[in-house]
User: Fold Nicastrin from Coffea arabica.
Amino acid sequence: MDTRLLFLISCFIARLSFSLSGELNSFESVPDLEKSMYTIVDGYPCVRLLNLSGEIGCSNPGHGKVAAPVVKFKNVNQLVEPSAILVSLDELDSLLARVSKDTNFASLVAGILVESGTPGGNNFKGFSPELKFPEAEFAPYQNKNFEWNPSGSGIMWKAYNFPVFLLSENSTLALLEAATKNEKSKKSYTSDVAEFGLVMQTTKSGTHDSESCLREETCLPLGGYSVWSALPPINTSTSQKSKPIILAVTSMDSASFFRDKSLGADSPISGLIALLAAVDALSHLNGLHLSKQLVFVVFTGEAWGFLGSRRFLLELDQHSDAVSGLDFTLIETVLEIGSVGKSFDQGVKKFFVHTTEAASISNQTLDALKRAQDSLKTENVKISVASKSNPGIPPSSLMMFLRKNPDSSGIVLEDFDTAFTNKFYHSHLDNLSNINASAIAAASSLVARSLYILASEKNEINDSVLTAISVNSSFIDELLGCLLDCEPGLSCDLVNQYISPSAACPSHYVGVIQGEPSSSPYPGYVGDVSRFLWNFLADKTSVPTENRSATCPKHCSGTGELCIRGETDGKGVCVISSTRHIIHLLHSSSIRRIGKDSWALNRKKMHSIRYVPAYSTRLKFESDMWKLLPTNSSDIMGAADPVWTESNWDTITLRVYSVQHASYDRLILLLGISVTVAAYIAIVITRSVIRKALKRD
Assistant:
């Protein structure tokens, strides 16, 4: 019997050793072991932003990661333990409302995971995390309660002391499976948990507003680089009298509750694409002779306190190098292209013109738009003046011109009258499916022909010339794919003609401004879209040069000559253009090799080129750090400036894994102790029995 028992134990140990050996051999490295234990989740985080008053956005509550079991919001009445709540988009507003009202419930919210996709059904009225009157504090009129954005909930302007992630489609399926598994195995000893790594430096350091975090260097200011160009190029070296300026403006940045999911298809990228297509159409006119100066400006930072337009106006006041050749007093009118991607209604492209009170010049612009409309006879385009019941123009860059000078003339071209037609304003759902390419093409045709009419002498305008101004619809389709989709995204052929992008998937969040703002910043500090716009506008608004075939930068030595397309092949070509922004004379790999210090030393040896920085007018970069300036009576809008900053962080992570319940761990410990005690007692008894047996023998 003893021999048989010994044999069985030996077989069990051998089999256990073989099983363990086989399992261990399947993992060739620690990363392999981690892959089997953890599922990395693809998601887009809501991050911590700050202003002079406090914080908005999301962050882990402490210094470390947070892990909690995944539960579905629709199945939860009360939380009994810290939980990661999986919620559909149409339930997000109600969840966050409950968090703000129920402190006990809020204390048990470890994090929120938002499912991907657009909710269906008639009950879904839209999703806009913005306010009902975006940036109302900058409005040049008294009615700050007007609802331009009826879908707005304002959730992106509140602070949350827990992480929030928007999940990708695949990650949504994985998290739904984890939540379902947890529901079915409530009596089990394991559960699937989500681990959030959204640790913000401002939270760790206790710097909870822009002034303190800039002082402690735990954040950076929001900002980037605006671009402007002139057609034809402005010759600053001539003594000829400057022409009146027709300013065509739009913006390139959007916002979202989720930082890296800010596409802004209708607001504002449809307007940006319309302007680029208009510039392209005008560039193909042979022998263009204009009595007034056309200037195109693309602002960034407009979603965050109109950073781009306010800084642009300040640079004009200071007559800085960045705006050399421009004069605010010469700006005759401003034509702003806003949201134009949703104007397609039953075959008619309908646009609304929002005007300032400077009637005479605004009427000229309106007349130009109507004449442009009439020239588009077969395209079913209709423009109407916006309702007089509106308190004024909608949220737009033109507001900043009016705040500077209430008598400024201008119009904003939009696809809405009294309220946004875009139900996803400043939301990740404002994507390619939210706009219509033919509407953008119609807006572009209106803008191109109107600009030509405004900048020309009346006796030189005829229908044949207007008809020749033709927008390329294929070019618009290509831009839509480049700027609003990941395939091809910024890897598209059009963008690759001019720059080497750092990423394929576009995002139009403004980002942070790094390093010292200067006339020739380190290229690695400038976003892909700004670099593309600079090169594109420089190309389209340029005039022929004798050095056109010469490579850059050393051969671009003529007056007004610039080097474009320098990133793509390290050579580039010379053009004459008034475009202001940075220029990239080196291939991106060469930039990485020389580094920012070498760039700073060598940039003065390159061509003299400029850009217009976009950051708060209340900030100054001094002694390698940002400093807050006191309010200035000459800066009318400075008092309303929130001074937006973004917290620094190390790495943002999100993963899912299974854990054993603490009660099960305690049970195993208790069983282990019991087995140990029982074994000890058994050994004592056995020894006693053996001793007695030996004494008998």
